[in-house]
Amino acid sequence: MAAKLKKGDRVVVIAGKDKGQKGEITQVMPKEGRAIVSGVNQVVRHRKQSAGQEGGRVTQSAPIQLSNLMLVDPKSGEPTRVGFKLREDGTKVRVAKKSGEEIEERKS
What we know:
Blueprint: E1 10-13, E2 22-29, E3 34-37, E4 42-47, E5 56-61, E6 64-65, E7 69-72, E8 79-80, E9 82-86, E10 92-96
């Protein structure tokens, strides 16, 4: 099955403690069904000092369930579902269900 959410997509959290927050997907873990979204689901980790880095409390983004994320519509900026469409040349593209706009692929 094709991935509906990909790295670089702008998403909004629809459930959980960070409901309503928007961010960009930095990493997708399809086997676990999770993604890391910048600025969302922040957790504090205590890191021990080593030769290359400083120790202390470090805030980082933790993975969030893919079912709790929705793509931000490129036209209206509202949450939308993702569908697929075939172009005339035979390529399969992702489409925002709310506006019908094609979702452009970001080159990372």
